[in-house]
Amino acid sequence: MSALNELRQLKGVKQESTDNKAAYLFLLPWLIGLVVITIGPMIASLYLSFTDYSLLAAPDWIGIKNYQRMASDPRLLNSIRVTLTYVLVSTPLQLGLALVIAVLLNRGMRGLAFYRSVFYLPSLMGSSVAIALLWRQIFGTDGLINQILRGLGWANPPGWIADPGTALYTIILLHVWTFGSPMIIFLAGLRQIPDMYYEAASVDGASKWTQFWHITMPLLSPIIFFNLVLQIIGAFQSFTQAFIVSGGNGGPSDSTMFYTLYLYQKGFAQLEMGYAAAMAWLLVLIVGIFTFLNFFLSKYWVFYDD
Q1: Cα 126 from Cα 117, distance rounded (Å)
Q2: pLDDT, mean of residues 239-253
């Protein structure tokens, strides 16, 4: 009897080994891609950040000089300020608008699928070159916005993308307009909230506003947190909008000089690849800090019903 059990155990071990080999075989393309496309370039970039490298000659090891140089680079410091302004202003506005639209759509209006598709469409096109070019025309000196303002009696409206005081906010408005992706996620989260909570609150005499703040927001807080983390990371990586709207130079007066745009200029326009690699790792650090803060603060406002 014991010999039979040992035989069964041996067969089980062989079967498990065969299953593991099959699993690794199916995972092999992904593992190769992870090493070749992600981990390998990251290690190479980390090495290059400690070198003077111009693509035209072999990298020259210079230690931490690239990182020391960043501390005294006024354009880099300005790009961090511009990017932080963009992230901290556009992300709350985008998520707020997405939540409002999701709440309205969740009321069960007719043609929901159509409206959901229409509102999601800008998210598909918002980072495209065509939409950025269109946005540049809309907010140009003779663009659609100024034509409307002149029709309303404003004789000399400003050139919104040519004014350092307003250029960044036109790009923020473009980012807010692409609220479709977080809206769809909010809508899915709203559909998961049981109706019994609202029914019980109505019986107790709670108003719609009270129900929203004390039922909807707490139960939706994990979805809000998820959207917040994703949108902050995405906002830090924004590039196309600033590049197209500013003509690639971050103007006027560096008012739209996003961090990614300055990194592009250093790496691909001025061929300072070592410095650009150091900038990339600083961006990783900044995004990591914001992500850590979000996770740390989430315990104070994110509610999980388990």
Answers
A1: 14
A2: 88
Distance spanning both ends of the chain, measured CA to CA = 47
Task: Categorize the per-residue pLDDT at 129 as very low, low, confident or very high, splitting at 50, 70 and 90.
Answer: confident
Three state DSSP letters for 186-202: HHHHHHCCCHHHHHHHH
Q: Do 276 and 262 touch, CB atoms closer than 8 A?
A: no
Whether 59 is covered by a domain: the verdict is: no
- What's the DSSP call for residue 62? -
Instruction: Specify if 60 maps to a domain.
Output: no
Joined together, the tokens standing for residue 76 give 């880099």
Same-domain status, 213 and 262 = yes
Domain containing 286 equals 67-301
Same domain, 39 and 158: no
What pLDDT is attached to residue 83?
A: 97
Question: Residues 255-274: what's their mean pLDDT?
Answer: 94
Q: What is the CATH number of the domain that holds 171?
A: 1.10.3720.10
How many whole angstroms separate alpha carbon 254 and alpha carbon 260? Answer: 13
pLDDT at 7 over 70: no
Residue written as token pair 């990251």: 42
Kindly report the pTM of this predicted structure.
0.87
**Stretch (H or E) spanning 114:** helix 112-125
The size of the chain, in residues, is 306
Do 253 and 161 form a contact (C-beta atoms < 8 A)? no
Q: Which residue type does 107 have? A: R
CB-CB contact of 157 with 213 (8 Å): no
Tell which residue, 102, 82, 96, 99, has the closest CA to residue 241.
Answer: 82
Side-chain-facing half-sphere of 52: CA atoms under 13 Å: 4
Amino acid type, 144: L
pLDDT at residue number 217: 93
Residues 28 and 127 in one domain: no
Check whether residue 254 and residue 184 sit in a common domain. Answer: yes
Give residue 245's pLDDT.
87
